[in-house]
Write a structure and sequence with these properties.
Helices cover about 25% and strands about 20% of the residues. It is of the alpha/beta class.
Amino acid sequence: MSRTQTELTILPAYNGDSILIKTFDKNKQEFIILIDGGTPSTFDYSLKKNLNEISKINLLVLTHIDSDHIGGLIKFFKNSLIDEIEIDEVWINQPETEFNQTSNIEAQISVRQAENFKVLIKKKKPHSNIREITIADNVINIKGLEFTILSPTVEIKDKFYKVWKKEKSLLKEENLKTNISSSTANYSQSLKELSKIDFKPHSSIDSDIYNSSSIAFVLKCPDVKFLLLADTRAEIITQRLKELGYDIENLLEVDFVKISHHGSLNNTSQELLSLIKSSNYLISTNGGTSKHKHPSRETIARIVYKANRDDELLNVYTNYKITDIKNRIGEFVNETDLEEGNWNIEYKNTFTKNDK
């Protein structure tokens, strides 16, 4: 099938991520990329419907093993639909260790859940190429599509594997990962005031190793360019961009930025944003959970009032209706906020070069 325009869709994945990209290679042949599968319920609610229209996935990326990213993929691989879809390549960072499988795919982040997924890949798609990804890969070119890898570093992947190998049993999320997203929402201060507050993440990279090990990259398609940050840490991406030669005089220019970790205040820093030139920022969340409320007002403030912004209208897009998000987390933005900063926020799922 031929194609001449890239289309990125952020599926409604509850509090998680699931991104479907329909682009084209150097021969103008359709190239399908699926990044994450959202929560287990995401497959039934939205992913299955979209996959019904697809016969081949050229690249499947599991950015990291959080349940709100892997859950929907496990349900996909357990569904009969998997037999109808060819998958060329899978990117997944996971050591070769043996665990007993668990049927509880609703469980939170766990090494057992991810091991279950790897078993499913090998069983259902034995001919798919499984590839580990780190910044050592640098730039990966697949049929003219360019992937510049920004995360994880080799060191962080190795640390993640050490943690993985220690977890011999299914543990609760709070035992594996520090909650870095449960800070009290600050709705009283203006966006401009919030943008001036220094970025101070609530946990270290090592204690947030699952998010820190996220596969993040710049995707350059023939007609459009994306920065896809999964749930990775701002410190990691900032350092990587600097290593690649980007600074405030030489910005990374992209058409769309998928903001990290559903807009958590701990994953988007002023320094990182100062290295990026874009007018379009995408946030994937329905408002989050009782413990993890997303997006944060602080993240919105940092985007709107980022350093070295140009005069163009800046767009923030959510994959759920603004009113629905507000019903879950409160008035994270208001009409007064929109009176300054030359910006807009709206609900929108699908993006093409015409939306730049």
